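User: Please fill in residues for this 223-position structure.
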């Protein structure tokens, strides 16, 4: 059975010609596929209101502190450059200790902080249409993560910037979609790799070769 053809994109590029414009662009380059009016329309959006301030602050953090500050420090520096007064934290209950430490640090730096755990509202998973058998402990009350409620409370509190700490895959997407404020991620949860998900990519040629094998077998099952 022949393998399906994949659409080529930036992951398949070896030149990164868009970075310094010193290399040739591949035929499938997304940069060269853009029309002049498309590039202009997007560029104009960076000059408007909030997006202009955010891009300026992000560029300053990168330009002045690249490789010098930790992500905790960068996050607070970014917030400071945006004149943020109140930071919201959307936190996994399993990383409450980490959120508590970050809250103390942020408050020391002069920010007001509101932290909301993922189990806020305390709905049982079955109330959300999740089968009993999918629970970690079937037959017991098991609160579902509640990213919409987290966003609702932080919206109600009128936070200026929200920080995601360890939200589950998928729940982070829901929270971001419903947040009125900008969202930046401080910790990406990965229980297996001590919250360092990129380790699976770094070891994909050794310990995590199975990722490629499983992908093949999964595609086979789908066909």
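Assistant: Residues filled in for all 223 positions:
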């Amino acid at each position: 059975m022949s393998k399906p053809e994949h659409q080529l994109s930036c992951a398949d590029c070896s030149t990164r010609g868009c970075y310094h414009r010193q290399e040739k662009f591949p035929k499938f380059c997304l940069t060269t596929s853009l029309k002049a009016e498309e590039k202009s329309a997007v560029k104009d959006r960076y000059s408007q209101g909030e997006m202009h301030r955010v891009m300026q602050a992000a560029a300053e953090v990168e330009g002045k502190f690249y490789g010098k500050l930790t992500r905790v420090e960068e996050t607070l520096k970014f917030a400071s450059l945006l004149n943020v007064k109140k930071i919201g934290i959307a936190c996994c209950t399993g990383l409450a200790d980490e959120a508590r430490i970050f809250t103390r640090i942020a408050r020391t730096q002069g920010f007001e902080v509101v932290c909301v755990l993922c189990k806020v509202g305390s709905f049982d998973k079955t109330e959300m249409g999740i089968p009993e058998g999918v629970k970690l402990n079937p037959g017991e009350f098991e609160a579902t993560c509640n990213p919409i409620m987290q966003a609702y409370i932080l919206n109600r509190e009128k936070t200026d910037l929200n920080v995601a700490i360890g939200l589950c895959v998928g729940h982070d997407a829901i929270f971001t979609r419903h947040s009125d404020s900008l969202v930046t991620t401080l910790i990406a949860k990965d229980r297996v790799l001590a919250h360092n998900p990129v380790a699976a990519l770094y070891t994909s040629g050794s310990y995590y070769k199975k990722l490629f094998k499983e992908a093949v077998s999964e595609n086979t099952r789908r066909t």
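For context: The longest helix spans residues 49-65.
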